[in-house]
Specification:
Helices cover about 30% and strands about 30% of the residues. By secondary structure, it is of the alpha+beta class.
C-alpha cells in the first residue's frame, strides 16, 4: 500500500530493531501508556505474535519512506473487541515529526477502513497534553467526541464516520 511519499505494509521480523528503538524513546511513548520493550527479542516476540492481520485483515502497519525505504514509524487501524470499536493510531521517530507523515499515513488508513473494510466509525485517542496528536486527529477530519481518563491521565476521544468524509 502506498501514498504519495510512503509505503505501508505489515510488520516483518526485520522491523523488530526499529520497533525497539521507537518504543525506547521516552518522548515518543510519553503519552501512549505503553512501556518500552525490554530488548530487541521482546520486540521480535511482539511482531511474531501480532495477529491483527489474520483476525481482522488490517492492523498497525510499518510506514516506510518511498525514497529511502527507511522505517519511519507505524500507523494503522486497530479493532478493540472489548470496546467494539476501531481506532486509528500512529507513532513515528522524533526526527520524522512535523513532516506530515502521520497525517498522510492516517488519512490513507481511514480511507481504507471506510472503503475496503466498510467500517462505520473510527476513533482516535490522545492524552490532552499531546497537542501534536490532537492536531493530527483534527487534520484527519475527526471531531471531538468525549473526554476519558487513562492511567490517571486526562485524554480525549475524537471520531469520524464513514458519512462525514
Amino acid at each position: 500500500m502506498q501514498t504519495e511519499r510512503l509505503y505501508l505494509r505489515e510488520f516483518k521480523l526485520q522491523d523488530a530493531g526499529d520497533l525497539y528503538s521507537l518504543n525506547n524513546d521516552f518522548e515518543v511513548i510519553r503519552y501512549t501508556g505503553d512501556s518500552p520493550f525490554e530488548n530487541v527479542k521482546e520486540a521480535e516476540e511482539f511482531v511474531q505474535s501480532y495477529d491483527h492481520y489474520q483476525k481482522y485483515s488490517f492492523g498497525r502497519w510499518a510506514v516506510l519512506d518511498k525514497k529511502t525505504n527507511s522505517f519511519l514509524g507505524w500507523c494503522g487501524l486497530k479493532y478493540s473487541p472489548n470496546l467494539n470499536e476501531h481506532d486509528i493510531g500512529f507513532r513515528f521517530f522524533k526526527k520524522h515529526w512535523n513532516k506530515g507523515y502521520a497525517t498522510e499515513a492516517a488519512k490513507f488508513c481511514i480511507k481504507l477502513g471506510f472503503e475496503k473494510y466498510n467500517l462505520e466509525t473510527i476513533v482516535g485517542r490522545a492524552m490532552k497534553q499531546n497537542q501534536a496528536s490532537i492536531k493530527v486527529l483534527e487534520k484527519l477530519g475527526m471531531t471531538f467526541k468525549k473526554d476519558f481518563t487513562f492511567d490517571n491521565q486526562k485524554g480525549v476521544i475524537y471520531q469520524i464516520t464513514n458519512h462525514s468524509i
